[in-house]
Design brief:
With about 375 residues, the chain is an alpha/beta fold. The chain is built from 9 helices and 20 strands. Helix 1 runs parallel beside helix 9 and helix 2 packs across helix 9. The chain starts with a strand and ends in a 25-residue tail after the last helix.
Amino acid sequence: MSQSLTCDVVVVGAGMVGAACALYAARAGLDVVLVDRGPVAGGSTGAGEGNLLVSDKEPGPELDLALLSLRLWRDLAEEFGDGVEYDAKGGVVVASAPESLSALETLAARQRAAGVETVSVTADRLHDLEPHLAPGLAGAVHYPQDAQVMPALAAAHLLRASGARLLTGRTVLEVPRGPDGAVRGVRTDAGEIHAPAVVNAAGTWGGELADRAGVHLPVRPRRGYVLVTEPLPPRVRHKVYAADYVADVASDSAALQTSPVVEGTAAGPILIGASRERVGFDRSFSLPALRALATGATGLFPFLERVRALRTYVGFRPYLPDHLPAIGPDPRAPGLLHACGHEGAGIGLSTGTGHLIAQILAGKRPDVDLGPFRPDRFPHFPQEAE
């Protein structure tokens, strides 16, 4: 039975970014309705590792947003206790050769100037941090600020704390606009939700939602796999990854790319990533991708050769051409705000994004310059085939 609701702001998308937008908007005194065609954390959030990283970001707008987000995550971890499984484990980025170590240390120096804590680790001290690392590595940089949460749990806790009205199983069919071009809420397959503000937190489907509001946002899916091992005693202390991971994140290639990323979890299984490829929304099993992940992980931690992988899961990172998310008001559709396109960093950047969206909704000056994240920064060309 269709029904009509009224609120101050509709957030579309019940992943981590949508949950954070709902939380901070509600704490700014706004009446929030959150709508999603699936369950909470049913998209990219539920297929993520829960990383809160500064180590993989070049100095610039995204790193500024990551530092803000980390501070907010620490506050939420204190508020929610163990509920979000916040783990301030730190990250270790390892280099296999002297030349890659030199490039890594140059990046770390630039990150340090931007406010990131970095500690250089010589080859002879690597095993103090990670006793089971492979021998022969050139060195590493330790990033104490890197952390992790359990994404599905965290999204649920943020939503519950927000007090927002949650409407799952509802597909947004249209974002109606008035004669002046301003949005009027959303029309779903179960009725209309009237509001003067709509937040597009639809993740990989953010481009589709933008289309339904009559604006262009070129969000594309980037497929990634994660291998999950059998439960083990604690053997990997940090998030550990190879230095070429940063280059893979910034790459525009559509082809399969993998770089080893290995981390433990509180429950015991080890998570192994990371792969990236642009194949549309194809969820089919890819043996080459999984074989490459396993090979990279055992190269970092040889003991994994004797460990069983119990399962794998696949997700889609919401990718924009310049690798920055779209955050803030859309001048082409007054009342429409975007909070999507975070690629593989949506969990980590969600709190800062939600905080900034709430500041805009409340008429305040945002804490971070949103110019680089403008949603109308992309020329409108016909969509490329994947």
